[in-house]
Amino acid sequence: MGKIALLFPGQGAQTIGMGRSLVERFPAARSLVDRATSVLGYDLAKVCFDGPSEDLDSTVVSQPAIFTLSIAALEALREEFFGADENCEAAAGLSLGEYTALTFAGVFEFEDGLRLVQKRGRAMQDASDANAGGMVSILGLELAKIEELCDQARENDILQVANILCPGNVVVSGTISACERIVELANAADAMKTIPLAVAGAFHTPLMKPADEILAKALADTKMNKPRIPIISNVDGKPHDDTEEIRNILVQQILSPVQWETSMRNLRADGFDTFYEVGPGRVLRGLMKRIDRKVSCSGVDV
């Protein structure tokens, strides 16, 4: 067994029916979902299993749902990949998934982490309702070219790189009109594909204000412990073990680009060669194949 890191998914990984097999197979997973229901005030299992999709896809529901089921998926990981969690030496999570990784590392108690995620989802949804925006995935162009296109398409609006996921896969985020302009420019620049994403707003841009301030207050009121393993930050691709630094960087994450490719390359440079995606979906496995085909990246069905 190589040097192991766990990866936790972010918003967008949700699908109707997710988690059903987990709670049927693992009593501990069922208990976790029941605990989440008590915190959230609605039947989390019902919305995950049965939808409707407009409820599950809302930021305020999808974030707590993915967080909870990713923690619950550790039960399946322990059965299918014995020792993977105990031998794990680092973890990372994509945007929302960073909270899951921090909870796995003991920084937050489960209920505290869930309350934070619920407040984060609500604050981001409120910011999206106040400032209409969108996100576009641009495939097949270099980062420098996409940054150049952002400069051309921005005009007097907000538009910036939001997610640097892997070579040839970058997401931009901004006002609706700026997103429409960059789609035209990217297509004209021979992008392989441009995909407007089904999200509530312009995540990881200043259009998310004042969600960062709301989250800062919630984090200040939440007990945090030093992580027992390194957790790689989305903001700079590095681990932080000081709780005040972690608080600050989680606030920055709301408005800053997600440096996923950098995070994965830094883990590889530190000798990590075995990765497990823990939570709904298979997005992170796909990204890892584009970043480095030499590494092993497996996962569990949720």
Q: Which sequence of strands runs across the widest sheet?
A: 7-2-1-9-10
- Which regions are unreliable across 5 or more consecutive residues at pLDDT < 50? none
Helix content: 40-55%
What order do the SSEs take from the amino end to the carboxyl end, as H and E? EHHHHHEHHEHEEHEHEHEHEHE
Residue-averaged pLDDT, rounded?
96
Largest sheet: 5 strands, parallel
Specify the structural class. Answer: alpha/beta
Number of strands: 10
Write down the Rg.
18 Å
Intertermini distance: 24 Å
Strand share of the residues? 15-25%
Oligomeric state: single chain
From the spread of the alpha carbons, the general shape counts as globular
Number of contiguous helices: 13
Overview of this protein structure:
The chain is an alpha/beta fold. Helices cover 49% and strands 16% of the residues. The protein is built from 13 helices and ten strands. It has helices at 20-25, 27-40, 44-50, 53-56, 59-80, 97-104, 110-130, 143-154, 176-188, 211-220, 243-253, 260-269, 283-291, and strands at residues 4-8, 88-93, 133-139, 159-166, 169-175, 193-196, 231-232, 258-259, 274-277, 296-299. The strands form two sheets. A five-stranded parallel sheet has the order 7-2-1-9-10. β4 (159-166) and β5 (169-175) form a beta hairpin. α2 (27-40) runs antiparallel to α5 (59-80). The longest helix has 22 residues, at 59-80. It is globular.
Q: What does the secondary structure layout of this molecule look like, with pairings?
A:
Blueprint: E1 4-8, H1 20-25, H2 27-40, H3 44-50, H4 53-56, H5 59-80, E2 88-93, H6 97-104, H7 110-130, E3 133-139, H8 143-154, E4 159-166, E5 169-175, H9 176-188, E6 193-196, H10 211-220, E7 231-232, H11 243-253, E8 258-259, H12 260-269, E9 274-277, H13 283-291, E10 296-299
Parallel strand pairs: 1-2, 1-9, 2-7, 4-8, 9-10
Antiparallel strand pairs: 3-5, 3-6, 4-5
Helix pairs in contact: 2-5, 2-7, 5-6, 5-7, 7-10, 8-9, 10-11
